[in-house]
Structures are given as structure tokens and as C-alpha cells.
Specification:
Helices cover 52% and strands 7% of the residues. It has 13 helices and 5 strands. The strands form 2 sheets. Strands 1-2-3 form a 3-stranded parallel beta sheet. Helix 3 packs across helix 12. The chain is globular and about 75 Å long. It folds into 2 domains: 3-205 and 311-344, 3-Layer(aba) Sandwich (Rossmann fold); 229-308, Tyrosyl-Transfer RNA Synthetase, CATH 1.10.240.
């Protein structure tokens, strides 16, 4: 099958810093599987980064390149998948405007992910107008490519549900699709947009090394995909469980054992570790952390090797070439979607083409 004839997938990341192990088990490893059978589009949402960092544009540019390097290091293949840049796909911004007319402001502000971000970042009432707008923009990020599936972390499921609402609303209003139709039938019944489904990764929520909060760069509790082997071991040693001795029965649901579930891939070994840990069978936290380090570094070693190709100025140039080639392909698809949407809305006066230089 050619990529164009495969079911389509869209997902991506906002460039807020390097990717970590939580991103990997929550979404990246699913992307690697999907690119074997699906037409995958991976979007760097650099426009969204400006919602809280508009005064740090150089950081956003740097983080944009770093995220693509992380993707490439994990095995994302630009020959099989489309890597694209949000700010260079103008159809996304146009669709965001149209979609903003289809969803009430109070519905946007009820989005639990948006509310959580406002609280976590201490924005209060001082966030810019564009901050809630980015929730609508995420709908356009997705629907511009009319995907069937969107791989996301657990905390992004609410965004996907709002996107599904927008797609239904558009198809009902402008394409006369019966609002009682099954989601799976909207496109077949003449809708411009399929109703995309969220795909949550194997590990919905990986705790950070603090043992409390979800792994996050901003909380300083992350193990990054680009960390050295020594940095990984040092960080894992910080995982706190509160356990005092190897003969003390341990909680098999604590942060350390969640890491075991995520990164020790032999189920028999996981079962053995959990059994001994729960019984306090002379199995110390330090031993588990050492074994975890071996498993995680075995996962990251090939990534470190691939990433080395993209270091320095020459590496940045390679990354920009990859983004440019992918963005050409992405614009072809997004412009096609925008034309279909405009025709449905009675705005199909003429078509346009885009050229990247």
C-alpha cells in the first residue's frame, strides 16, 4: 500500500523542551508501531508554544529542532512518515478561525486539560487571549489532515473529545450529515471530516522521579530520551518510595514499580520482582533501580547513536531539510482539506497552491 492509501494518523508535540520517558511510553512507541501500517503525520506545534512563551521565540526555535531530533532518534522515519511544522501550514490557522465560530467560549474553558494548565502554570487571569484559542487550534491541527486516529497521552484525551465535537458540528451544519449518524459513518455520509478516535499509549501516566507527580520537564522530575547513561542512573536513584529496608514489604503500585511495569518487558521477570517486593524478600530498592537502569539504557542506547547524526550546525541543517520536505507534503493534504471545507461552507471561489522556498 502507498502511504496515501493507508488510514491516516495525526499526532505531535508542542516544543517546550526535550522529550522524556513519559512521552515515549505514552505516545512515541505507539507512533513507531503505527508508521508501519498507517499514513502518519507528526506535527511540531510551534505556534502553540507562543501561548505562554511569546517573549522567548529563540527558545521555541531551538526546542523545535530538539524535538525533531528526539523523534528521529527514536526511529521516526521521514521516508515513511510526514514530519511537519505548524507555522508553515497556513490552512491550520484558517481552519482555526472557522472552527472558533462553531464552539462556545464557555465550552472551550470547560476543557479540563486547559484548566489544569492554567493552574499548573500559575497563569490566573493573566493568560493571553491566544491561550484558550490554542485549544481550538488543536482541533485544526488534527482535522486539517482528516485522520482516523490520534495517538495521545491520557491528559490530551479531553482535547480530542472537543475536536470530535467540532468535526460533528461542521459536518452536520455544512454537509447536512444526520446528527444521529454513527461517528464511523460521518465521512461516508458526505461529511468533510471523519470523527477521529484517540489512541492512548501503553502507559497512560508515568510518574516522575519525585514519585508523586506525573513526569514533566517543568517539575524537574524527568528522565530525558537524550540523557546520558550516567544521568539516567543518577536520576533513577532519586526515585523515592519511603521503604526502609529490603525485608520490608513494598507497595507494588508505587512509582518505582510503575517504572518496572513500563520498562522491564519480560512479564515473568516483572511478576517475580513484584512478588518478592510485596513480600519483602530481601529485594532492595537499590537493586531494582540498578536493574531498571540497565533496561532503560538498553532502550536509549540506539537513540543516542541515531541522535549523534543530528548534532551541531550540520545536524540542524539536516533536520530543517527533513521538516521542509515533510511540510511540502503536509501542505498538499491540508490545502485539499481547506478547499473541501470552504466548498462546503459556500466559500469555494477558487483554489490556491503553496510553495516553500
Amino acid at each position: 500500500m502507498t502511504p496515501e492509501s493507508r488510514p491516516r494518523v495525526l499526532t505531535g508535540d508542542t516544543p517546550t523542551g526535550r522529550l522524556h520517558l513519559g512521552h515515549y511510553v505514552g505516545s512515541i512507541e505507539r507512533r513507531l508501531e503505527l508508521q508501519e501500517e498507517y499514513d502518519c503525520y507528526f506535527l511540531i506545534a510551534n505556534m502553540h508554544a507562543f501561548t505562554t512563551r511569546a517573549e522567548r521565540s529563540e527558545e521555541i526555535r531551538r526546542d523545535t529542532l530538539e524535538i525533531v531530533k528526539d523523534w528521529l532518534s527514536t526511529g521516526i522515519d521521514p521516508e515513511r512518515s510526514t514530519v511537519t511544522l505548524q507555522t508553515e501550514v497556513p490552512a491550520i490557522a484558517e481552519l482555526s478561525w472557522f472552527f472558533a465560530m462553531l464552539i462556545p467560549f464557555n465550552r472551550v474553558m470547560r476543557n479540563p486539560t486547559l484548566k489544569t494548565e492554567i493552574d499548573a502554570k500559575g497563569l490566573g487571569d493573566s493568560y493571553p487571549f491566544g491561550f484558550p484559542m490554542y485549544a481550538v487550534g488543536q482541533c485544526a491541527d488534527i482535522l486539517a489532515f482528516r485522520p482516523e486516529f490520534v495517538p495521545v497521552g491520557e491528559d490530551q484525551v479531553a482535547h480530542i473529545e472537543m475536536c470530535r465535537e467540532v468535526a460533528r458540528r461542521f459536518d452536520v451544519l455544512y454537509c447536512s450529515v444526520n446528527p444521529k449518524a454513527d461517528d464511523a459513518d460521518f465521512e461516508k455520509l458526505g461529511g468533510v471530516f471523519p470523527i477521529p478516535k484517540a489512541l492512548v499509549g501503553r502507559v497512560a501516566r508515568l510518574p516522575g522521579i519525585d514519585g508523586i507527580q506525573k513526569m514533566s520537564k517543568s517539575l524537574g522530575n524527568a528522565v530525558f530520551l537524550s540523557d546520558s547513561a550516567a544521568e539516567v542512573r543518577k536520576k533513577l536513584n532519586k526515585i523515592f518510595t519511603g521503604r526502609q529496608s529490603p525485608t520490608e514489604p513494598g507497595d507494588i503500585h508505587n512509582a518505582l514499580m510503575q517504572f518496572v511495569d513500563a520498562f522491564v518487558r519480560d512479564p515473568n521477570r516483572v511478576a517475580e520482582l513484584k512478588d518478592r517486593y510485596a513480600r519483602g524478600d530481601n529485594l532492595g530498592d537499590g537493586h531494582i533501580k540498578q536493574e531498571l537502569g540497565e533496561h532503560i539504557n538498553a532502550l536509549l542506547d540506539p537513540m543516542r547513536e541515531r541522535r549523534a547524526k543530528y548534532e551541531g550546525k550540520a545536524g540542524d541543517d539536516l533536520v530543517i531539510d527533513i521538516i521542509k520536505a515533510g511540510t511540502r507534503r503536509a501542505n498538499e493534504q491540508a490545502e485539499r482539506t481547506l478547499w473541501m471545507a470552504k466548498e462546503a461552507m459556500g466559500l469555494g471561489f477558487f483554489r490556491r497552491g503553496l510553495r516553500l522556498e
